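note to self — DONT lose this again. spent like an hour looking for the file last time. sequence + predicted structure for the chain T wanted, 160 res
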Amino acid sequence: MTLVMTVRESERIMAHLCRAYPEEGCGVLLGHDGAGAREVVGIIALENRREESRHNRYLIAPEQFLSADRTARAAGLDVIGFFHSHPDHPAKPSAFDLQHAWPYYSYMIVNVTRGTAGELRSFRLAEDRSGFEEEKVELREVDRDRPGAADRLGAPGDRG
């Protein structure tokens, strides 16, 4: 499976995660599934709601997820995944990430070192929950013939 997104959306993700440094930042990927590819159309940057260990853990609260889901549906999209940072650590899933992952969703991880975004990678949970399978991330320039996510996403909140 390939995860497709615009360079602009990847830059928005990285900017949000750099602002969260040295804590983990997080957010939601909005889009839809296609033939052999999943397309990110927009993101919703969220506040890490975890109260402790924010340097190596994040929490998207239930009300944040529900709000993102409502925003996605209102725009004709779906929540297709989540993104978060690994401050001063590689962009690969941790054992904690594996324990808390849900099937179907893409999990994008960006390593942020000393406040600078580095590698961006995406993973999906294996059907048997034994581990993650890496997704290819394909970055594209903006398609001028299609409305941007900002044109379709109307809910208030931090969008990066």
